[in-house]
Design a protein that fits this description.
Radius of gyration: 18 Å
Distance between the termini: 48 Å
Number of strands: 9
Number of helices: 6
Strand order of the largest sheet: 2-1-5-6-8-7-9
Strand content: 15-25%
């Protein structure tokens, strides 16, 4: 899905003030430049839990490509609750294809998006500590992902650039959805090296 110049500029302005400001500035600039390129229509995704992968056409001249939409939706099924599956919001695949295109342009080759969580059944979602009761995972509008070799903040920054939904950055993955435009950091932040000369915690403090 094409993104307007105004929306991308707004997304860039917002992304620069979000919780992942530790991202390398040179990489952030290169990523924002790559986002101006023509929208990508092919998407390469892998599923962490099963090892499956799909390279699919998201849309063509006539619109969304139904057979590939089916394959991508199946890849995003709830593998932890009977392989329950629903049709995934095609706008999510539009967003993921654009993000993958921008990151791949900077990387110098196609990088896969690895799905750690896609659709969730209500029962599965209720058993997850910290999961939102009205999570967009419940109706096929969200995915948790990572890109091999990249910090989760890199994927989150790319998602925020397009300003098309929610972006949550976690230590080991990034949440992306097609809901309201918003951003957050959850599940703690990546560990940082303590400042030299600061007091060492006692054993009881680090349990």
């Amino acid at each position: 899905m094409p993104v307007s110049r105004r929306n991308l500029l707004a997304g860039l302005a917002g992304a620069c003030t979000l919780p992942w400001t530790g991202l390398d500035p040179a990489y952030a600039r290169a990523l924002s430049d790559a986002a101006w390129r023509a929208p990508v229509t092919r998407l390469w995704m892998k599923r962490e839990q099963t090892g499956e992968q799909v390279s699919a056409i998201v849309r063509g001249p006539a619109g969304y490509h139904a057979p590939d939409h089916h394959m991508l939706s199946w890849l995003m099924r709830d593998v932890k609750d009977g392989n329950a599956a629903v049709w995934i919001d095609p706008r999510l695949f539009d967003l993921l294809a654009d993000i993958q295109g921008a990151m791949s342009a900077v990387h110098g080759g196609v990088v896969p998006l690895v799905v750690t969580s896609g659709y969730r059944t209500p029962d599965h979602n209720s058993r997850l500590e910290g999961a939102a009761r009205a999570s967009l995972h419940l109706n096929g509008r969200a995915a948790d992902l990572k890109v091999p070799g990249y910090d989760s903040r890199a994927l989150a920054f790319a998602g925020a650039l397009y300003a098309r939904g929610g972006v949550g950055v976690y230590p080991t993955f990034c949440h992306l959805d097609t809901g309201a435009v918003r951003a957050w950091a959850g599940g703690g932040t990546p560990a940082r090296q303590p400042a030299t000369g600061t007091p060492l915690p006692t054993t009881s403090q680090i349990r």
